[in-house]
Design a protein that fits this description.
By secondary structure, the protein is an alpha+beta fold. The chain is built from 6 helices and 14 strands. 36% of the residues are buried. Bound molecules: thymidine-5'-phosphate and aspartic acid.
């Protein structure tokens, strides 16, 4: 499909969004900018945009084939992805297979222990408030999503996990946890945003080393190397 790139409509922390000559299509431009802790920490991860675009494409194709509809249309170039135009549901959906990150910190739990069955958490997508953890009751109170939509979100978040966890395991990576965003396209729910080392935690099966944005968050070094290694394993390049 050929579309021409229109004006910039939004610039986020990791991506720029452009409108196109098709009112139902957007172009996402993946940047190398990295932020953490609600943008208090800022940096650059060289070629991260290319890596995240390619990994997201592979994973969106996998999910579509597995019955989870996504906003993905096609990858246009190294850093550009064509998507359906959606209205983002302002909820960050986190699925956790292993205790890590904010879950360990908030509840004083030991990192590395398995969570069976996996759990789904919701965060209110609001930078000014620091994306607070919310309950289904808060979602209802603030009318962030209809109850039926929320049930669909939960089901597809768990289905995404059931499809992705074995895919990564076959490639020597443990899918510790990840964040998803959903959107409404002509009233229908679809998975949106990106799925990449920015939005997932991956631990190497053998060494248990972080292979994701935690290397940037925690100043662990070899950040670019880890992103390239995940790309190599995911896209068989
Ligand atoms: P957390 O343990 O810090 O809550 O993160 C859970 C997962 O969500 C982890 O895989 C990283 C991802 N994540 C994002 O994609 N964006 C964010 O802003 C945060 C805080 C986490
Ligand atoms: N992307 C988020 C930010 O800057 C946080 C994170 O991924 O840790 O704020």
């Amino acid at each position: 499909m050929t579309v021409s790139k229109g004006s910039l409509i939004y610039e986020g922390k990791a991506k720029k969004l452009f409108e196109t000559d098709n009112a139902d299509r957007l172009i996402h431009y993946f940047k190398d900018d990295a932020t953490a802790f609600n943008a208090q920490k800022k940096g650059t991860i060289v070629e991260k945009g290319i890596v995240n675009n390619k990994i997201s494409e592979r994973l969106f194709r996998l999910l579509e084939a597995g019955g989870v509809p996504t906003h993905f249309v096609e990858r246009l170039s190294d850093r550009e992805m064509l998507t359906k135009k959606v209205r983002i549901v302002p909820i960050e959906v986190v699925v956790r297979n292993i205790i890590a990150g904010s879950l360990a910190k908030r509840l004083g739990l030991k990192e590395g222990e398995a969570i069976t069955p996996p759990i789904v958490e919701f965060y209110y997508k609001n930078d000014a408030l620091g994306d607070p953890l919310i309950t289904e009751e808060h979602i209802r109170l603030m009318k962030l999503a209809e109850p039926a939509v929320l049930n669909q979100i939960k089901a597809w978040a768990l289905r995404t996990n059931a499809l992705l966890a074995p895919f990564f395991a076959e490639r020597g990576l443990i899918l510790v946890d990840f964040k998803l965003e959903f959107g409404l396209h002509n009233g229908k729910l679809v998975l949106a945003d990106e799925i990449s080392p920015d939005t997932c935690r991956f631990w190497d099966q053998k060494t248990k080393e972080s292979m994701d944005k935690d290397r940037f968050r925690k100043d662990l070094g070899k950040i670019e190397e880890a992103y390239q290694e995940v790309l190599r394993r995911v896209c068989d390049v």
